[in-house]
Amino acid sequence: MKKIMILLVLLGTFSCSKSISQIKDLQAISDAPKVNLPYGDKDVLYNFPNEWTTANTASDAACNKMGQLYEDLENPNRKKITAYYSEISSLLAEEFIPSEAVKNKKEKLEIKIAKVFTLSDAEVYSIVYQGKMDCKNCEYPESQIQNVLVSIKGGKITDKIPVSYVNGSDLARTTRFFYIDENSIIHVKDFKSDEEGVAFTAYSKFTIDRDGKFTRL
Amino acid sequence: MPITIDDTGQTVTLNPPYSPVIPDDSLQRITQVYFAKKTVTEDGANVAFTRIDSLHPQRQGTEDLNYDSILGKTVYLVIETVNMDTLSIDAVVKPSDNTLTGNTETLTLMWFNPQTQAFEAKRLLSAVVGNFDALNNCGTTDNPTGSHAHYTNLADHANKAIIKLQLRPSLRADFNTWATNIAAAQNGLANLEVAVERTDNEPCAYGLDSTEELKEAGVFLNSDDLGRFRITNRNFYEIYARALTGRANDRNTYTDGTYNFLPMNGVSRRKISKLENLSSSQVCYFHYDIYGNETLVATCDKTNVMGRANGTQLGAVPRGALRTENAPAGGAAQTNHIFANAIVTTGNHRNARDARLFPGALRIVSYGASGTNVPLVRMPDTLNMTVNGSIIVYGFSNTQRRFCNPDCFAAFVGILSQYGLAGVLSTGMCFGDATSYPSVAHPNGDSVDTSYMANRRNEQDLLNAFVDWNFTQVIAGRTQQAWLRNAHRYATDHNDHLHSGDFDGNSIHNIYR
Questions:
Q1: Residue B356: which of A145, A170, A197 has the nearest Cβ?
Q2: pTM (2 decimals)?
Q3: Cβ of B331 under 8 Å from any chain A Cβ?
Q4: Which of A77, A199, B299, B374 could join B307 in a cystine, given CB atoms 3.0 to 4.6 angstroms apart?
């Protein structure tokens, strides 16, 4: 019985379904401005080879054109909310690695919000944010910028998917870019890159149902 | 024995009898002859001369320099007189001993001709007391010989004859000979002295205390008591500041300083000149503000080392290293494994666990020999100086990659001068062996990397300065820096540092080219 109780507590802790009302000061999220489809970088649809060097090839040029993540980060029209990590962590990608300063409430995080889909039973928001990564021996600082699509239904987060990010440093990083077409198909491509070259590692497509659940095609 | 100067500029020893003239109340006297730097104050209105000789040593920081000028440098020769207004005076410059040329014959040096605004070889130098053409600024289409009328205190100098010259011969081969001779001297110095007399060969007195006019030349800078003029070997760069004229389209606008006489490079004037001295392993960087005031910014050690290709990551250090050496402490590099045609560097940079190459491993980089030597200077760890109200400041981030191509560093000084604010932090160039661990892409120190600054206008101004000073491959990032304009390329591998590379070395005026 005791083991079952512990398991239930753990399941509750890791549940993705968290009441939005429990997230302090985020009631204003529903006021976020809406973006229009298609949304994202159409260059994601470019037929990337598996690998290429960083010389000025067509692939490199296409890769470097994908700037929606940064435009979202810069977009002054997005709803801005600044809060402690513990207050908004459920809105962030699970891949986000908070710095010690962020974890220990010495620094707050700023998230920038836009509404992407209004579904019959749910709403989907784009949450963009950035943060430094702690690194003792790094001559080149490491950082992360991420854009997460978060589905909210009935005041609860029902699903989320990081659709775009740059994690790492100028020496090496992993990146993901996305494009949501007119049919609401979410195209996502993953890359690994460093000073010498880029590897195209994955292409995923997702749909979203009326409840805001993302399904890989 | 008394001497005189003949028509060719040679000094000739006079035979007795020579006739001293009894002075009257209007004794005509050449009181002092000295080499000097021009010092301009009051926003360009006030000019003065700062003596440079063994009694008036130059300083770098808090230390007196053991030399007064450098072979090839531009200096002013100032002849101070009494009761000699409008008279022409001849002057010749001679070695004080055999060090420089193997004899003490009069030197042919490069005299600044105000009419042509160019330097020309000349042995006999002449100047008229109270004529200030040697102080002319750079000419314009309307006034090709320039002007000195902007100086409001020229009356203070009415007793002076002024000659502007470069301390070098016309031919590169002769320069090399002189440089070799200086290098062979025990103290690395050659002393120069100056003989002067009236062009009309009439008598005059010499020195501050002389009471009789002599019909012979007077010699100055020829004793320890009266001062000696000591020249030495250095490579040097002359970096000319630009004047801020305004701001248009969110970009500062500049014009060249009025004392930048360097030749044009297409539609714009060159901003840097250099003189390479094969007998010296040191490089002096001189900054000139918009009024022509000279500041010695830095003296750097110069080396020539084997150039390196971009690095390649390895899974392990190959067998067969000739030797291992410790990498400079303070950065991520730890050990260099020296091979015949490569340096393999290991260190404490660990690749990310999802890295494209060797995920999770401590990075090992092989830098192959390029087959061509590259020059490098060891940059100062920091610069922090104020010139004409503008500051030249930089520091390094957490890196020991503090070696740089000498041309690039000259341009960097000019960029800092143009930018003129604190906060520039370099993320490093290369090590003294031209490698760049943990980076594989920055060997040979031919680019300048800087951290982005939080203030956007400042970062934009700094980027503009890199472009203005002829870095032709400025790469900015695509995150926080997407708003930056004028970069040549934008890429995700420059989200944390601005890369300024491919400096156009041809934009530098090479004095002997």
A1: A197
A2: 0.89
A3: yes
A4: B374
* Sequence-ordered list of residues with C-beta below 8 angstroms from that of A56, at least 6 positions apart, any chain: none
Mark whether B270 and B406 lie in a shared domain: yes
User: B492 vs A130: CB contact, 8 Å cut-off?
Assistant: no
- Which distant-in-sequence residues (6+ apart) come within 8 Å of B33 by Cβ? B77, B78, B79, B80, B91, B194, B196, B218, B220, B221
ipTM of the predicted structure?
A: 0.81
Q: Residue B2: what are its φ and ψ, rounded to 5°?
A: -70, 150
Residues composing chain B: 513
Contact state of A64 with B478 under an 8 Å Cβ cutoff: yes
Q: Are B363 and B312 in contact (CB under 8 A)?
A: no
Partner A contacted by B357 (CB < 8 A): yes
CATH of the domain at B396: 3.30.1380
Q: What's the pLDDT tens digit per position in B393-420?
A: 999 988 899 999 999 999 999 999 999 9
Residues B455, B431, single domain; the answer is: yes
- Alpha carbon separation from B430 to A194, B85, B323, B447 (Å, rounded): 18, 57, 21, 9
Are B272 and B333 in a shared domain?
no
Tell me the three state secondary structure of residue B116. Answer: coil
For residue range B111-169, what is the model confidence (pLDDT) as tens digits? 999 999 999 999 999 999 999 999 999 988 899 999 999 999 999 999 999 999 999 99
Please tell me the total count of domains within chain B: 3
Q: Which domain holds residue B277?
A: 236-300+376-510
- pLDDT tens by residue, B460-496: 999 999 999 999 999 998 766 667 899 998 888 888 8
